[in-house]
Hints:
- The chain has seven helices and no strands.
- The chain is mainly α and 139 residues long.
Amino acid sequence: MRKELLEIEEQLASKGQLRKPQKDFLRDAIIRYKDGENLEQAFNNAQMPESGRGKQSIAYRSAKKARDARLREAFELLDGTDWRRCYALASLVYEIQAKLKDGAFPLESKLERLIVRAIKTGVKVPIDAKRIYAAIFPD
């Protein structure tokens, strides 16, 4: 165990000064390793610190994943081909966003509730079929 950690430390030291996020990541991996995980698992499961601001932040990426999951669930409730469902979902998102701007309204279906939950993630919800398709079917 010590030998493996020393080898990693030497490799990292040869690459220059470590920044705080890198040190935090290594500290977390070492703690996991000492708690009984094998070395590969410890590094795979270690928490990577936030990588940036704005669209690169972990908070934004997790909110976007939540938005896309809600859109995917809403998409599954619709009938038709993929593109027809995207067009229908786009028009529903547009209508519900307009209603929400006017004030609260009663949510009558699961589809409406899912769209409102997607909107409330804080990430802009696309209102055109092409972008909804890209959110639901990422490459």
